[in-house]
Amino acid sequence: MTKRILVTGKNGQLGQSLQKLVEDSSLSLGITAGMVFTFVGRDELGLTCSDSISAFFSNQRFDAMINCAAYTAVDKAESEPELADQINHIAVAQLAEIAKVQAIPLIHISTDYVFDGQSYKPYTEADLTDPQNVYGLTKLKGEQAILASGCKGAIIRTSWVYSEFGSNFVKTMLRLGKERDSLSVIFDQIGSPTYATDLAQAVLVILNSAFSKLNEQQMQVPEIQNSPRRKYPWGAKLKIYHFSNEGVCSWYDFAKAIFELSDVSCHVLPIETKDYPTPAKRPHYSVMNKAKIKQLPGLVVPYWRDSLQTCLKELEAKE
Predict the structure, then answer these.
(1) What integer pLDDT is reported at residue 32 of this predicted model?
(2) Closest-CA residue to 284 (of 272, 295, 292)
(3) Nearest to residue 97, comparing CAs of 167, 160, 163, 147?
(4) pLDDT for the residue 212
(5) Of 135, 232, 241, 285, which residue is the catalytic one?
(6) Per CATH, which fold does 3-168+192-247+284-302 belong to?
(7) Where are the domains of the chain?
(8) Which of 215, 198, 232 is nearest to 65 (CA)?
């Protein structure tokens, strides 16, 4: 039976990366077979208005929901806390409630910013959260709202997302590197870059795994196929996963690699966080433990430099 999947945030990096995989079965490894995706942006489903969300779902039903939409302007969130909270928390709570009522799984994308960044070892899903800025706080409140709703699905925390789409660190470095002889980049913030295409693959693996288990369940108990209260085999609790590419680097290391792999002659100077003040406080350590998500069959987690090279080739092909 065909599964209808709703994806919010179609114009964001992850939304566009998911569309890329869905449109090319060779990239998605065929795991989207039997799924029909509906991609929506703020014009179709505006998360800034509760009435808009209710109206959208008033006569539509899906088999799963992937929420890629978010307020991601980290510094701007410090001066727009209400808007950030509406999109990252209040709207997410509403989506979670709808998912529960419709008995469908919700896959939600969160962030490493829910942690304080003071750790000395990779964060696990069970580690205590302590966001240090408005963006991180609103994302954590969104997570908490999903957990409180009782809906099934998964929360995926990720970090340092980049792609050939939208605005991101890689594209900014490439632009500035071609305009300037040298750039100063922070070296005392450590994390793991995440290529949005790899994250999109992880989302599809999670989705496919759940539906595969559902199909097995339906073969054993056929009557649940048409049940208005069908249950998806996501376990008793909503799952939280961490995902990024393999390896660890600083923003300085990341910039150096971008220029090296793209043959851009730009000298990179390492500076400390204190030398580049921003409205929002950034975590010094954002490395996440991915042992839990690696247990999923079919999941591949490439090394960050390999994925960076793939992205750079994609960007070159688009020029």
Answers:
(1) 78
(2) 272
(3) 147
(4) 65
(5) 135
(6) Rossmann fold (3.40.50)
(7) 3-168+192-247+284-302
(8) 232
pLDDT in tens, 31-45: 777 889 999 999 999
Task: Please state, in angstroms and rounded to a whole number, the distance separating the CA atoms of residues 140 and 175.
Answer: 33
158 within 8 A of 14, measured Cβ to Cβ: no
Only one residue has tokens 């006569």, namely: 59
What are 221-260's pLDDT values in tens digits?
444 444 444 444 455 578 999 999 999 999 999 999 999 9
Residue 274, SS3? helix
Given a cut of 50, whether residue 193 has pLDDT beyond it is: yes
Which residues are bridge partners to 162 per DSSP? Answer: 195
Sign of CA dihedral 174, 277, 113, 39: negative
State yes or no: is 303 an active-site residue: no
CA distances from 5 to 34, 106, 150 (A): 10, 10, 20
